[in-house]
Amino acid sequence: MPVLHQMQMSGNCYKVRLAAHQLGIPLTLQEYGLHTGETRRPEYLAKNPNGRVPLLELDDGRCLPESGAILFYLTEGTHLQPADKWARAEMMQWMFFEQYSHEPYIAVARFVRSYMNDAQRAARGADMEKLMTNGKAALSVMEKHLADRDWFAGDRYSIADIALYGYTHAAEEGGFELANYPAVSRWLQRVSREPRYIPLSHRP
Amino acid sequence: MPVLHQMQMSGNCYKVRLAAHQLGIPLTLQEYGLHTGETRRPEYLAKNPNGRVPLLELDDGRCLPESGAILFYLTEGTHLQPADKWARAEMMQWMFFEQYSHEPYIAVARFVRSYMNDAQRAARGADMEKLMTNGKAALSVMEKHLADRDWFAGDRYSIADIALYGYTHAAEEGGFELANYPAVSRWLQRVSREPRYIPLSHRP
Lengths: 204, 204
What we know:
Two copies of one chain form a homodimer.
Chain A: E1 3-6, H1 11-23, E2 28-31, H2 42-47, E3 55-57, E4 63-65, H3 67-75, H4 85-114, H5 118-124, H6 128-146, H7 159-168, H8 182-192
Parallel strand pairs in A: 1-2
Antiparallel strand pairs in A: 1-3, 3-4
Helix pairs in contact in A: 1-3, 1-7, 4-6, 4-7, 6-8
């Protein structure tokens, strides 16, 4: 069975757990501590030189980092990826948007506010204004897209929605007010009603 | 003919020009100024609410932002994407790595050092140490991968190489010393010898 090297609280890891669960793909979870530096030790760097979770390790030892790549790999050829070429391009658009313009602000604001220890927070607190400004900009881009669309890529739920859901649904832990984004809030509800949905806290 | 809304000096835009040229796909280039704020005006935001270049506009008006998504769209089904499922996962891995762990440091250090005006540089200069540290870390991850591999995904040139080449080949404009990364330097040479290669400065 593939091993997902992960941290339960990480939205990037949750995305992989959610997609795998919805497809009925069993994963063994290998948990790492938040503040232990375990993912920077030589044993881990041998699997992922970039020292991050999530990392998918196959039975034969091949390792795949990057949540977007793992989502793409696990769902290729399934209903969680659109078949239409343009919708696939939109899927990639929103997955790259999430990693470049959304996660570095919304996930990091959440981490600073809700998961850092005091020493870490003192060192990063000065960044909060920029994190909030850019995070709100990302939510506004999503709000605009969802004004006349139910989903991010094509006309149905896909890994683009899963990628954006991971940290958007937990954005209030970063100090963002989701009530200011009504179309985003309705989309969050839609995602949570998809078949075989699991919340971030779910463990197999 | 599709229009590429772009800035000539942008590595993200160059990636699209390089892939399109290698596939013989003609593009009309619509150039934007570096410091003019043109991509934040309503006319542009109507095409891309995220206000960035590159943006690919098709003949029918459909618009696709995000360099990674444009690369994926233009090259689907061509020799610039591997056919093997695992190699495709590696392709996505390195494209997400580039946008998350490489571009925000190497491209931004280059922009601060070589393209900002004095007022911008004064406001961002304090970030340089972090940009350099994280940029060097990204180059080291690439160096490690290339120790026993010629290409990033599978065993041949793909859009993963194009995505990483865009800013790596210009990293010295950001203050990085590529001579410290001999495997990366050899890979840069390999990319530049690919058929129908064009440099960043090339205009059709």
